[in-house]
């Protein structure tokens, strides 16, 4: 920021601190460099007993808020010097972390929280008794904080379990369907599909016009229609094949059969040659037996003719 913007931010913060802190704020310097002193106690407006208190002095450099504020702490009651020094170191660290933003009220609020943790009766000095009381008070604070955390977790888990049970019961029961609810759903569904079809260039949902428009005007056949068309095409092919068998002639390649005939002739000739070679020695015996059988038949015939002549 430039110096003018820094001065404007400081003026706005000064007005805010006067409205919020009121009597607890003491303006030590209203011009640049500004300086404030704030009385800080654990509880304001009588919310609880205050056993500790401090006065914190904030010195605002010209480059604030881009440059951190300097903080010094003085004990009013209930704190030792070492505790004030510890608080100063903590505030210096927090101021460094919050450079670039108005931080005075933020630091005041952090100091108040630090005092609440050490707001113990009788802890007015650095004695062992005071330290013991402080530790006991811190332990009680931690236990209370842990109990509050556990209670919050139990409450949140209980609410979540109730919500889960309601959701589970609702899923089991479902949504009852009535004629009125179905008609309402169908009307909305058809309107939605009609809008989708119009957006894609179709006419509507009736008659699958949306799909027809998407396919160039041709309706995509269903699975049943494709199956029936396949059966019809197979039957037509069978009929055409039967007509060709009845009216036409099959063309046969004669060369294939000629080759087979030549092979068969060769096999027959080879078989004849084998027969002649195997049975050549028995040919003369068969011719003599045939001549004897012929002569016998001739004699029997002549004898038969003579018997028929005597009977006459």
Automatic annotation (TrEMBL):
Residues 235-246, 253-290 have a biased composition (Acidic residues). One of its GO terms (biological process) is cellular response to stress. It holds the Pfam family RWD. Residues 141-161, 234-312 are annotated as: Disordered. Residues 141-151, 301-312 have a biased composition (Basic and acidic residues). SUPFAM superfamilies: UBC-like. Residues 12-118 form the RWD domain. This is Ubiquitin-conjugating enzyme/RWD. It comes from Nannochloropsis gaditana.
């Amino acid at each position: 920021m430039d110096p003018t913007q820094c001065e404007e931010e400081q003026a706005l913060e000064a007005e805010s601190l006067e409205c919020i802190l009121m009597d607890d704020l003491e303006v030590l310097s209203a011009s640049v460099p500004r300086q404030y002193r704030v009385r800080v106690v654990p509880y304001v407006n009588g919310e609880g007993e205050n056993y500790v208190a401090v006065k914190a002095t904030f010195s605002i450099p010209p480059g604030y808020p881009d440059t951190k504020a300097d903080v010094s702490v003085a004990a009013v009651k209930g704190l030792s010097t070492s505790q004030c020094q510890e608080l100063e170191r903590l505030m210096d660290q927090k101021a460094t972390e919050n450079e670039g933003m108005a931080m005075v009220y933020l630091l005041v609020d952090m100091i108040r929280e630090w005092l609440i943790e050490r707001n113990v009766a009788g802890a007015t000095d650095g004695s062992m008794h005071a330290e013991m009381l402080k530790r006991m008070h811190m332990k009680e604070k931690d236990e209370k904080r842990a109990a509050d955390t556990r209670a919050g977790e139990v409450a949140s888990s209980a609410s979540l379990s109730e919500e889960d049970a309601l959701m589970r019961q609702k899923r089991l029961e479902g949504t009852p369907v009535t004629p009125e609810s179905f008609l309402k759903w169908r009307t909305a569904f058809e309107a939605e599909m009609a809008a989708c079809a119009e957006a894609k260039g179709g006419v509507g949902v009736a008659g699958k016009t949306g799909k027809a428009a998407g396919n160039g005007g041709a309706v995509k056949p269903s699975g049943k229609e494709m199956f029936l068309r396949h059966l019809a095409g197979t039957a037509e092919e069978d009929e055409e094949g039967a007509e060709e068998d009845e009216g036409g002639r099959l063309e046969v390649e004669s060369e294939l059969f000629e080759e087979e005939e030549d092979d068969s002739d060769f096999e027959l000739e080879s078989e004849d040659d084998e027969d002649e070679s195997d049975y050549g020695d028995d040919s003369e015996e068969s011719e003599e037996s045939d001549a004897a059988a012929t002569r016998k038949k001739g004699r029997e015939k002549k004898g038969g003719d003579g018997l028929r002549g005597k009977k006459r």
